[in-house]
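User: Structure tokens for this complex, please. No commentary.
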Amino acid sequence: MCQLLGMNCNVPTDICFSFTGFQARGGATDVHADGWGIAFFEGKGVRVFLDPQPSCSSPIAALVRQYPIRSKNVVAHIRKATQGVVALENTHPFMREAWGRYWIFAHNGNLHAPSTRLSTGPSTGLRTGFAPPLDGSFLPVGNTDSEYAFCWLLQTLREECGDTAPDHDQIFEIAHRVAREVGTLGEFNFLLAGSDFLIAHASTQLSYIVRKAPFAQAHLKDEDVTVDFSEVTTPDDRVAVVATVPLTDNEDWQTMPPGTLWLFAEGVPVRQATTVAGVKRTAPPATGGGEAQERS
Amino acid sequence: MCQLLGMNCNVPTDICFSFTGFQARGGATDVHADGWGIAFFEGKGVRVFLDPQPSCSSPIAALVRQYPIRSKNVVAHIRKATQGVVALENTHPFMREAWGRYWIFAHNGNLHAPSTRLSTGPSTGLRTGFAPPLDGSFLPVGNTDSEYAFCWLLQTLREECGDTAPDHDQIFEIAHRVAREVGTLGEFNFLLAGSDFLIAHASTQLSYIVRKAPFAQAHLKDEDVTVDFSEVTTPDDRVAVVATVPLTDNEDWQTMPPGTLWLFAEGVPVRQATTVAGVKRTAPPATGGGEAQERS
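Assistant:
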């Protein structure tokens, strides 16, 4: 399996502190040594750093750890390969463009061949694992179940929305449908980000925290590093951090129940819905023009 | 304007030496201080490093200069903005996926609004410059003429080739048509790369060199750095380097005549064609199964 790290903020924020702990899990304090990657949205643009080397010894990871790139949406991933060889093309996160926007996706889990309509399609060759019937509008470059799932998600969005770019609610609702459907095929923890949102699916394991005023000190679990967020923030800052396993040992991380999908925007969770088979209820969107409501 | 740097090799090769000289032009020895980027193909995967800061002072450029990433196809760009603000989404090179392959594009030049069929299309909004009628399969995220041209090129490839991935000859022929067409609208020097080819269009200014045995010393123009390639190569290595302005002062760079399109594969130019309006002849592909012929 792999580990995921996501960040969604209301002001551009650097992720150096969280990434320091996360990076250590890529071969040092944990076994995820089959590559890593991180994507930073900056406005409409996105920077993706990828390295098939373990993050604990990667010169690029050392740069990311020390170079404060300020972003409102970040997705990072450290890999323990299950499907697909260790190679750059199989290194998460993956990026595509649709509707003139970049989309970023990373997955933790393992998906198996289904017996349903997600059977092997014409464009997926001899693949024996999860291989949805892709129409060619988005195709995987590598051979991971994860990239197939990302392409399937974008294809479903395109089919539903046509030429009109989806809004947050449409993205959430279609991600919800795909999470329910693909989630029957195995573990499907994922992060999906655009320039102004982060969607997180807790299939088996994911936690989050929202840091906001009054800010306090935080201490990493994986390295003896402490930061006093009150020294580096303003009172209006809100930063949501999502991780497979909590990154700090003195903060109150919220466990995201298995089978839940979350939409984060402006540093808070604004929608949540269950994705366990048989449960169809989707939480309504946050109402009103003020601060989004936490539904945790 | 901007500057381009490309590399195409028959074995994975690092570009640290050439990039050292190229990087200096991004705000130190030349004026191209509006960001820079570089893309490295490694197998089917690609790594893109982007920075809207000047390359001469960019920590990411310092990493790329020192970290030998071995690649058979590299595209780099330093920017002097003409169209589009200085922002990450306007930083070259640009990347898209089509047919399950990554495509990389960088442009040096300035394209103007045409009065022909490349007029403003429905999906390009209020843009007053070059704005071809894009159908939505590939759309620009930023607002440079360059990214519009890249999307137009990919759309034309998709229209011509349908669901079947084009081979080198098809890519060259469609790039030739687009270079002739778009080249009437202004300066259109560009590099287009996939995992196993590099196409270069000399609209106004571009040079190349093929380094092969017997290898010799090379000395940068922009920094006092010398490398002895005989110490870092094997006799079978072939490395083609393309640059807006030659990078070394003691090697025999070939000027690519304005209005010529070139296809490089395995470290040598294998096809060349003129793109000046009115000239329709396209050089035939290299024949035979042996070493590709240079047509320069």
